[in-house]
Structures are given as structure tokens and as C-alpha cells.
């Protein structure tokens, strides 16, 4: 199965997390309206962002909680679902900020928040720079989503066993630190010399993947669910052992979709990662393959065209096919397969119970095989 949608719906995970998010945003809207009459666009933008998304992080948290002994009819279910809602709010914050940093045009098939705010400024003929206004508003929106995530998380663990709450909080705090540092490492990777040392380029790209995406997409949600269920240190270590490689495979799939994905399903223009100049494992492998083949034309083309915002769709597709022809796509697929095998071997040794055990495996496969 390569579609996570029906999996996320099981045991009402999506519906319950969505209801929690709606309740949180409704309360936040009331709070903000009391602060100022002009705050409506912030809530509207947050609702748009949270109306999309696969809820995979929430699902990984919930099903890890079940796999480590959580009882769906017990009081701990609410805590697991609310931590899932906090993860969705945190992801929204990361996406608001990431889109500003990447200067992205779209998110989930709609204008990115900073573009939307800039458009409002421009059409209203307000004073000042519309672009700067849009970016500033989106940064503040991301900060607001971070605050919302913290509030939802704190409410989630308020009534549970203090030791479990402390262990879960430690993972949540580490996740926020690592994603922030991962964003910086990504920013740094975009400005460092590139293309002369493909092995070094790939090493940096994988460091970024692990810190910025792999851990908070899979490993940390799995760890939080385990901690909520009372998992001991050994069980948490085993959860990390399958969560991290699965998270890395998840991001490598995302990198492939960022170049070769169907815009109708990804919600972003074809080849957008090439225009944004993302220094991924994929392009590092393409550069390495060109070097081995002595293909100086491809090497120079990658250096010149990667990050060219003016590339039209035809040029972007042509560059993508050159990358595919280098063998880089096949190599990345092989890396994904190896990571999934590593994750499955660790998962097989973990002290898990059904139905959560089987659901984690199914979610993992769906996350890596997805088309969007």
C-alpha cells in the first residue's frame, strides 16, 4: 500500500486530531480578536495550512503509543492524540518559516503564506514594500504556530503520569532544537562551495535530512508515542533505531518528488526543488555520477542551472531528465531501500504489540512509497 490516507483514518486518528486542531484554532481566534481587530488573516492563514497535510506525524505518535501498550479506551488516548495535534501545529510553524527561507511560491497547491500576505498588501495599495511585509507576516505566523504547538503539548501531558510527561517533554524539546539547527545547516549548505566534492556535498545533505526532517517526521513522533505509553530506555532506543532510518528514507522520497513528482499530487510546480537550488542527496549523486563518467557538460550544467529561478517548465524538466539519465535516481532509490531494510530489521526486534506493531510497519511503508 502506498497511500497513507486510509491508515491515518483508522481508529479515528485523523478525525480526532482535526477536531483538536479546530478547537485550538477557534479558541486562538477568540483570544486574538480581543487583542486587535486586524488579526483575522493570521488565523485564516493557519487554518489554510492545517486544512491540508497527511497527519502522518500524528499517526506515527498515536500508533507508536498503541504499539508500546497504549489502550485506545483508556485515558492515555487523549494525551496521544493531543501530542499528535501539537506535532501538526509544529509542522505548520516549520513550513511557514521554511517557505520564507526557500522563497517558495506555493504550499499544498496554494500560494505560500508570505506570497498571500504580499498579495494582500499589493492589492490594497498599502505603503511600504509588499514583499517585506509578506515575509515578516509569515515569520510571525510561524512564531504563533510554535506558541500554539507548545500550548497544545502542555495541555496534552498536563494530566498524565509525571515521569511519562517528563520523558515525552524531553523528546519534544529536543525535536524543536534539532529542527531549528537543521534549518540553519540547510541555510549554510546553500551558500557553501558546491560541486567540487560530491561526497562532502552528500554528507552535508544527509546531516540536514536527519536534523531538519527525518527526526521530526518519524523518529520523534514514534519516540513521543512510546514515552507516553511508559516505554523504558531500551524500548526507546529500539524505537529510534527504526524511526531514524525510516525518517531519512521519507525525506529522500520527498527529495525525489520535489524534482519528479506530479504537481497535481504534490501541490508544487514540477522541479521546484531545482529552481530553489536545494542541495539534496539526489543532486550530489548526479554530480558524482557525472564526475565518474567524465561528463563535464552535466557537471557545469548542474552548477549553472541549479537554483536558477528563471528556469521555465521545459528547461526544468530537461534538467530533471539529465539527472535521471545520470543514474542518480536509481542510486537514491537504492539508498531508500537500504534504509527501509535497516528500519524493518530494528522494528522486528522492538518490543511492540499489535495492532500498533503492524500499523507502524504499514505507515512506514506508505510514507516511503507515497506519491505526494
Automatic annotation (TrEMBL):
One of the GO biological process terms: isoprenoid biosynthetic process
GO molecular function annotations of the record: metal ion binding; prenyltransferase activity
UniProt xrefs under InterPro entries: Isoprenoid_synthase_dom_sf (IPR008949), Polyprenyl_synt (IPR000092), Polyprenyl_synt_CS (IPR033749)
Cofactor dependence: Mg(2+)
Keyword Glycosyltransferase: no
Protein origin, superkingdom: Bacteria
Key words of the record: Magnesium, Metal-binding, Transferase
Matches recorded under CDD domains: Trans_IPPS_HT
Family named by the database record: Belongs to the FPP/GGPP synthase family.
Cited PANTHER family: GERANYLGERANYL PYROPHOSPHATE SYNTHASE, SHORT CHAIN ISOPRENYL DIPHOSPHATE SYNTHASE
Name under which the protein is recorded: Polyprenyl synthetase family protein
Organism: Cellulomonas denverensis
Amino acid at each position: 500500500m502506498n497511500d497513507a490516507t486510509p491508515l491515518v483514518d483508522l481508529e479515528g486518528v485523523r478525525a480526532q486530531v482535526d477536531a483538536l486542531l479546530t478547537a485550538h484554532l477557534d479558541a486562538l481566534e477568540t483570544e486574538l480578536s480581543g487583542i486587535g481587530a486586524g488579526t483575522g488573516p493570521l488565523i485564516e492563514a493557519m487554518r489554510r495550512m492545517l486544512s491540508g497535510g497527511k497527519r502522518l506525524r500524528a499517526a506515527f505518535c498515536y500508533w507508536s503509543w498503541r504499539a508500546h501498550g497504549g489502550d485506545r479506551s483508556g485515558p492515555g488516548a487523549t494525551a496521544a492524540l493531543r501530542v499528535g495535534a501539537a506535532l501538526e501545529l509544529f509542522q505548520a510553524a516549520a513550513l511557514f518559516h521554511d517557505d520564507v527561507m526557500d522563497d517558495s511560491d506555493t504550499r499544498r497547491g496554494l500560494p505560500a503564506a508570505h506570497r498571500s500576505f504580499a498579495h494582500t498588501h499589493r492589492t490594497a495599495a498599502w505603503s511600504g514594500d509588499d514583499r517585506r511585509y509578506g515575509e515578516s507576516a509569515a515569520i510571525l505566523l510561524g512564531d504563533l504556530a510554535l506558541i500554539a504547538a507548545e500550548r497544545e503539548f502542555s495541555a496534552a501531558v498536563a494530566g498524565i503520569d509525571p515521569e511519562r510527561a517528563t520523558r515525552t517533554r524531553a523528546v519534544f524539546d529536543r525535536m524543536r532544537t534539532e529542527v531549528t539547527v537543521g534549518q540553519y545547516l540547510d541555510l549554510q549548505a546553500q551558500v557553501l562551495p558546491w560541486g567540487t566534492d560530491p561526497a562532502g556535498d552528500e554528507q552535508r545533505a544527509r546531516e540536514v535530512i536527519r536534523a531538519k526532517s527525518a527526526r521530526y517526521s518519524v523518529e520523534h513522533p514514534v519516540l513521543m508515542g512510546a514515552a507516553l505509553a511508559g516505554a523504558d530506555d531500551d524500548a526507546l532506543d529500539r524505537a529510534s533505531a527504526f524511526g531514524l532510518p525510516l525518517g531519512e528514507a521519507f525525506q529522500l522520497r520527498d527529495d525525489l518528488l520535489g524534482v519528479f513528482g506530479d504537481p497535481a499530487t504534490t501541490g508544487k510546480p514540477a522541479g521546484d526543488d531545482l529552481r530553489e537550488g536545494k542541495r539534496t542527496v539526489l543532486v550530489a549523486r548526479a554530480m558524482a555520477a557525472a564526475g565518474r563518467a567524465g561528463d563535464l557538460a552535466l557537471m557545469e550544467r548542474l552548477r549553472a542551472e541549479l537554483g536558477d529561478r528563471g528556469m521555465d517548465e521545459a528547461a526544468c524538466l530537461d534538467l530533471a531528465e539529465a539527472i535521471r539519465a545520470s543514474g542518480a535516481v536509481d542510486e537514491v532509490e537504492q539508498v531508500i531501500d537500504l534504509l527501509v531494510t535497516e528500519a524493518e530489521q530494528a522494528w522486528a526486534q522492538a518490543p511492540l504489540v499489535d495492532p500498533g506493531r503492524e500499523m507502524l510497519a504499514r505507515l512506514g511503508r506508505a510514507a516511503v512509497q507515497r506519491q505526494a
